[in-house]
Amino acid sequence: MNSLDRRQLLVSGAVTALLAGRGAWAQVPGTFRIGALNPITGSGANFGSGMQKSILFAAEEVNAAGGAAGRKLEVFAEDDQTSPNAAVLAAKKLLEVHRVQAILGTWASGVSLAVLPMTNAAGAILMHTSGAVALADPKINAKKLAFRYQGSSKHLSRAFSTAAKKEGLQRPAVMALNNPALAPHAEGFRKVWEAGGGKLTEFLLYEPGRPSYRSELQQVLRSKPDGIILSAYVADATAIVRDWAQLGTPMKWIIPGFGANVDFIKGVTSEVAEGIVVVESVVNERSSAYARFSRQYALSMKQAPENNVYAAMCYDMVQVLALAIEAAGPGADAVAVAAKVREVTTGKGQPVGSFEEGKKLLMQKKAINYEGASSAIDFDDENDVDPTFSAFVIRAGKWQRTYAINGA
Amino acid sequence: MEAYLLAIFITALVYVLLTLGLNFQYGFTGLINFGYVGFFALGAYASAICTARLGWPAWSGFLLGMVVPFFLAWPLGRIALRLRDDYLAIVTLGFSEVVRLVIINEKQLTNGGQGIAGVPKLFEFGGAGLGGDALLAAVLLLACTAVAWLVRCVVKSPYGRLIQAIRDDETALLALGKNPARFKTQVLMLGGAIAGLAGSFYAHYIGYVTPDQFLPIVTFQVWMAMIMGGVGRLRGAVAGAFLLLLVLEGSRAVRDLLPGLPEVAMSSIRLAVIGVALILFIRFRPQGLWGAPRD
Amino acid sequence: MDLIWSDYANLALNGLAEGLLMALPALAVTLVFGVARFPNAAVGDFVSLGSFGALAAHRASGGSTLAAALGGIGAGAAGTWLGWRLAFRPLLGRKGLAMLLTSIGVGFVLRAAMGLGLGHEIQLFDLPLLKAWRWGPLIMNPLDVLVGAMALVCVALVFALLRFTSVGRTMRAIADDMDLARVVGIDSRAAMARMWVLSGVVCGVAGLALGLKTQVSPEAGADVLLPAFAAAVVGGLGNPLGAVLGAVCLGILQELSTPFVGFTYKIALSYVAMLLVLLWRPQGLFGRVQGVR
User: Fold this and answer.
1) Measured distance CA(A201)–CA(C283) in Å, rounded
2) How does the average pLDDT of chain C come out, rounded?
3) Which one is the CATH code of A154-283+388-405: 1.10.3720.10, 3.10.129.10, 3.40.50.2300, 3.20.20.70?
4) Strands, E, within chain C: which ranges?
5) Any residues with CB less than 8 A from the CB of C238 and at least 6 apart, and which?
6) Which subunits count as partners of chain B given 3+ CB pairs below 8 Å?
7) For residue A34, what are the β-bridge partners?
8) Where are the domains of chain A?
């Protein structure tokens, strides 16, 4: 046992030395500390960097406007590697070492589900963009400290179901990638569709990383559907739709926005993509918040902000948090701040599009309703936002908006 | 700070259990198991299903988590006897993938690719659960000690000397009238049960299990821990596991020291470090840091 | 719903296409095994490397498949040759397990290097869309035919090399019996180096094929490693013809099984089939009897 203790001491000593070296954790008094825990690596990597940058520049905006209730925002950034294991350790570091009072921007459902018990235990706020319905479960979100900024699987499924009905589908089939992000959408769609009295001709989940999805596609086509809901990423969506195009069977496709982007259209060619319906949760394009966010995003990331709706959600998370801190008054803890979140975003207050605007009105003791970049940010009883979706149709290689789903 | 180090310590102890088990299988008998993560997954899912899906008490999950891998290792053992090392390596790799595919497909039982959430913590008390975590670490430490002691007893026993003899010269054994087949299988089964135990602890600690947490790379990480620490040495197993954690979690600290490094590069750098460590250790120090000089 | 004979025939054709695609990485695995006596776990990552080389050449040449093949071959061969010089040659004479673990390390390093140097975004080949070919109810994808033809040509060339050239004869000699070959005066090191390069060439073509059918990314090749292993094992490690036949058989078997086991378990079928073959014939279907157990 001696050698074990010695070695363990050595190792933890080494780790401590490494970690303490920076001194970056001298805790500045009078700040509200935020953890930005995002999927910089792993399957969410496409969005993670943008999400983290958005949190950072949103915090800078808030601080430039004088901070919230006399406190500046201090952000500590970590990578959750889109993995619950890594996320647990990162969240521990944020909560215990950096003593953050809120964690923002977890993306994968597995990560949020693993982190939520930890933030609950620490009395910290969690704002996430994950879809799992379980996250809103009153048993799991008992303290109401977690807030969801994206449509839950429920909302997404309903959106697709509405689109399918609007497109006149009577005998749709569902094809989806079997992974924790996309399979739930497919299952949710089936539930909603069948609850509405409809039937599916085929429900097929295919495994990732296969060289070909021919057999899978042929099985779906054998059931003679009049439309296919395809929940897939760009690579497999391209492969499947190309395969279908070569068969020449007329078919209506409904695909989520992340699967049917410009690369997809290029991959399947504009002729083939013509008429494909795309359903996408849209940002709140007419809001001033979106204008500010997209300008800053394009500057920092040198990328089009349209491709990263999650980054817009993260931007809103910071603005909302700051407004709630301001409303809760000086010295409020995370729990008190959480109680103010719905007050500043939902209800009959005056609409505002930025922290600066909202702060002014709050100082005059007026009620506000923050309208965000990603959506109007109105939380329901389960702390879920009611997102806006739109249906588009691909014409001449571009998305053209056809109709809105679920409100504004 | 303490809670963070405690979290790392707990994760390291789970890997210590895994390394002890693999060390037992390979280090003492030379059985090449590249599907070790399969047993880990079985233990984790057994605990998750028993507690989160069926509402049974935690010990039922632990029991099943050890029994299922124990018995499932038996057919694998019988197969191992008939195959050459290289074939065995590939077959065991296939085994862990089949386990994963079964987990993905049997949605009724395992919730498929979406995983099982809400696996309860074993102990829940103390500020922000710190007390519970500390108790968990203590229990894990006890488990590691118990397993290490058990393995030590087996190794030192006449039975154990026999096992080591298998590693050294099988034909001689056969000439003596001893059949190595049964012993190899038993070692495989015990090693599997140890991995299952680690899996149960892991499920209760993270609280959420998905098939993606049980990919072959975990097996390779445990192999690396075993090689770094020293094959065939208990001390080596412990040290190797902690070293592995240093590599995996240390990258987070590296970013604090070198803020200019782009975060996206970190996953590649982590992978490169594991790869280079494997290559260098095999080439220059195959017996590991604490291993016996011979190999 | 009930399937008719043509549905099964189409499934078999899909399986044939997939099997031909897997034949190349399986061949790469078995070539290395025949001479260096270990299963090379870095094959998947060499295939990824090959696909990047092919993509670059394809774009640079404005869409020429031939250029892409050369690009892939160049990248694959360079990769394996470097791997040989830096990692595998210094370990000559060590046990198979040491080489296997080293190959795992080499694969990781290669994947990390591609991730750092070329980025993680998934890239696709720019391909024109062609109508499927139909013979009655049977359907064939022109891309599958192209990939299959590439695989067959590559395999045929490799066989011809092994059979009819002195270089190939030397390789077969050291595969059969390294010590005897040396006694006879064959420079085993040079022959080994050539075998590694040949394996890299095959990985390069496999990379092009995989890239055309699926995508190009640092992680894409790793998905073919296990099926390649399974195919090589079924055919008998060290037997090039066996690897190709093994891949084709497993591919067809896999697709034909889908109406019965579903699309998730069909993947498990390769491993189960591999296991059954080994239980019945521990040296694989066409493997050699010596040195098995």
Assistant:
1) 45
2) 89
3) 3.40.50.2300
4) 133-135, 138-140
5) C30, C33, C34, C175, C287, C288
6) A, C
7) A75, A102
8) 30-151+286-370, 154-283+388-405
Q: How far apart are CA B257 and CA B263, in angstroms?
A: 13
Residues of A whose CB is below 8 A from C269: none
Contact A218 C7 (CB under 8 A): yes
Q: Are A213 and C144 in contact (CB under 8 A)?
A: no
Report, at the CATH architecture level, how domain A30-151+286-370 is classified. Answer: 3-Layer(aba) Sandwich (3.40)
Which structure tokens are listed for B124? 């829940």
Q: How far apart are CA C141 and CA C160, in angstroms?
A: 28
Report B:92-131 residues touching C (Cβ under 8 A): 93-95, 97-98, 101-102, 104-105
Residue B170 corresponds to which amino acid?
A: E
Beta-carbon-side half-sphere exposure of residue A192 (alpha carbons within 13 Å): 21
Q: Give residue limits of the domains in chain B.
A: 2-214
Subunit contact C90:B93, Cβ cutoff 8 A: no
Q: Which of C21, C121, C139 sits opposite A247 (nearest CB)?
A: C139
Write down the pTM of the prediction: 0.88
Q: Chain B contacts of A78, Cβ < 8 Å?
A: 252
The closest of C104, C83, C54 to C206, measured between CA atoms, is: C54
Contacts of A391 (CB under 8 A, 6+ apart): A163, A166, A277, A278, A279, A401, A402, A403, A404, A405
Name every residue whose Cβ is closer than 8 Å to that of residue A360 and which is 6 or more positions away in sequence.
none
CA nearest neighbour of B96 among C271, C177, C65? C271
CA atoms within 13 A on the CB side of A384: 21
pLDDT computed for residue B141 by the predictor: 94
Angle, helix B216-229 to helix C96-118, in steps of 10 degrees? 120
B89-102: b (≥16 Cβ within 10 Å) or e: bbbbbbbbbbbbbb
Of A392, A324, A382, A388, nearest in space to A136 by CA: A382
Amino acid at C111: R
Chain CA centroid to CA C107, Å? 15
Residue in the structure block whose two tokens are 């969506």: A237
Report whether A292 contacts A49 (CB < 8 A).
no
**Rg of chain A over all Cα atoms, to the nearest angstrom:** 23
Q: Give yes or no for A56 touching B (CB within 8 A).
A: no
Residues with Cβ within 8 Å of residue B71, at least 6 apart in sequence: B189
- DSSP 8-state secondary structure symbol assigned to residue B76: H
Would an 8 Å CB–CB cutoff place C246 in contact with chain B? no
Nearest partner of B7 among B291, B206, B283, judged by Cα: B206
**Residue C95: which residues within 8 A CB-CB, separation 6 or more?**
none
Please name each of the domains of chain C with its CATH number.
Answer: 5-119+137-280 (1.10.3470)
Q: Element (H or E) spanning A310, and its range?
A: helix A309-328
Q: What is the average pLDDT across B171-182?
A: 68
Q: How do residues A13-61 score in pLDDT, each as one tens digit?
A: 455 544 444 444 444 568 999 999 999 887 788 789 899 999 999 999 9
Q: Is the pLDDT of residue B206 over 80?
A: yes
Residue A134 tokens, joined: 């379980």
In this complex, do A4 and B266 lie within 8 Å of one another by their Cβ atoms?
no
Instruction: Report the percent of chain C where pLDDT is more than 70.
Output: 98
Distance from CA of B135 to the nearest CA of C (A): 37
Token output for B66: 């050890």
Which residues from C are below 8 Å from A176, CB to CB?
Answer: none
Both tokens of B260, joined, read: 């200019």
Minimal C-alpha gap between A206 and chain C (Å):
6
Residue whose structure tokens are 């031909």: C20
Minimal Cβ distance to B220: which of C38, C39, C104 = C104
Taking an 8 Å cut-off on Cβ atoms, the answer to whether C258 and A248 are in contact is no
Report the alpha-carbon distance of residue C9 to residue A21 in Å, rounded.
66
C174 phi and psi angles, rounded to 5 deg: -70, -25
